[in-house]
Amino acid sequence: QVQLVESGGGLVQAGGSLRLSCAASGRTFSNYNMGWFRQAPGKEREFVSAIRGSGGSAVYADSVKGRFAISRHNANHSVYLQMNMLKPEDTAVYYCAAKWVQYNYYYQSGYQRQSGYDYWGQGTQVTVSS
Hints:
This protein has strands at residues 4-7, 10-13, 18-24, 32-39, 46-51, 59-60, 68-73, 78-83, 92-100, 119-120, 124-129. With 130 residues, it is mostly beta strands.
């Protein structure tokens, strides 16, 4: 079991930056692949980014590639999402998600889908004004 708590959301002008954090409880954080998803009003929750338990290269949705960067600090049981050059269309509730994996240098099946994760945070609101 792992509990996830996001923080760092807020209101920012277009072109600005925010850094989201997700703190995880429990042990063996390095055996959890982590993901960020977002859900805008009236829309389905969508994949933003993911990183393996071992760290290393990450994956991103095309809509955020080049602007967002995911990272993790296993000793601190945390994962981060640095969001730069924010646009109004980035406005959404952002969720952190986790999936336990035995081999943390592989992505799990469905890592770009909600069903690929077992644990979710409560979400943090990001609002980008134009």
